[in-house]
Amino acid sequence: ELPPGTGMKLTSQTQILLQLHLLNATNAPITDSTGVTMQLASDPSAPFTPAGVYGLDNRKIDVPPNSAGYQVSMPCTPGKTMNVFALFGHMHRIGTHINVTRNGGEVLFDSGWNFDVQPTTTKQLTINPTDQLTLTCTYANTSSAHVTYGESTLNEMCAFIFYYTTFDGLDGCIQQ
Prior knowledge:
By secondary structure, this protein is mostly beta strands. It has no helices and twelve strands. β6 (95-102) and β7 form a beta hairpin.
């Protein structure tokens, strides 16, 4: 939920893309649903503070077979001030932990990972342009094959999103 006085400006004919990852572990068809509630501004000409997202995406993932506690990390210097109001991490099935620190030690987010429960966490903080952010993801690969980055839940991800104001355009750090 966006903070009071904030919003996302959508112009006429703007396409909105929702993504949903589902893993069907059986041969039987599955039925599920998801949704987003959008509320139009009562006065579209009224001033508001733009809200949006800043992403960290580590695509340099190659988890060795039969490994536990394997970590990948990536640095990011945002180059802008962000008034953060929510956080969201994302990994896939072999992820066990996700952590974001600032300036070498201050913990901004630290949580065990459960692929079946991926909440957005409300948290207020300010990210400064020169802050050194570090995203670290931990994995446990019990298979006999390497697991690399990919969109499939058979692959892995290490991603993190800051929801913030004053949004000035889609941005973030990607490590490939």
